[in-house]
Amino acid sequence: MKQAIHTDDAPRALGPYSQAIKKGGMVFFSGQVAIDPATQALVEGGIEAQARQVLNNLKAVATAAGVTLDDVVKTTVYLADFDDYKAVNAIYAEYFTGDAPARAAIAVKTLPAGALVEIDAIAIGD
């Protein structure tokens, strides 16, 4: 049976989806954008601030699902501007300090709420 994951420490879903779904020890994270869960508004401060908020949101959902970022095996990074790739990598490396998960990074035309970056993930817990 699948389990929907929800935490108030990450922003509410912007549509009809769960923050994550847990099934059989695996956690499938919906894409997170840089919405502050306290205000439900996109954070200001450019790509670095947004990347940090996205990763904090993923971390909060991971905690709610009973896993950590160390359990993440795959991410996809969506960028509104691929020129932000290097800046996002620098912040990303602060959160994934051991063996980094497999990853794809792609540029897209637009992201929800006017975000500059969105990241989704898959984790495997014990």
Summary of the model, kept short:
The chain is α+β, with helices and mostly antiparallel strands and 126 residues long. The chain has helices at residues 46-65, 85-95; strands spanning 3-5, 20-23, 26-32, 35-36, 41-42, 72-79, 102-107, 117-124. The protein has one domain (3-124): 60s Ribosomal Protein L30, Chain: A (2-Layer Sandwich), CATH 3.30.1330.
Can you write the helix and strand succession as a string?
A: EEEEEHEHEE
Q: Kindly state the mean pLDDT as a whole number?
A: 96
The percent of residues in helical segments reads: 10-25%
Spans of at least 5 consecutive residues whose pLDDT stays below 50 are none
Gap from first CA to last CA:
16 Å
How do the strands of the widest beta sheet line up side by side? 1-2-3-8-6-7
Number of domain modules: 1
Shape: globular
How many E-type strands? 8
How much beta, percentage-wise? 25-35%
Using the CA coordinates, give the radius of gyration: 13 Å
Structural class: alpha+beta
CATH superfamily: RutC-like
Q: What's the CATH topology name? A: 60s Ribosomal Protein L30, Chain: A
How does the major sheet shape up?
A: 6 strands, mixed
Number of helices: 2
CATH architectural arrangement: 2-Layer Sandwich
Q: Give the CATH class.
A: Alpha Beta
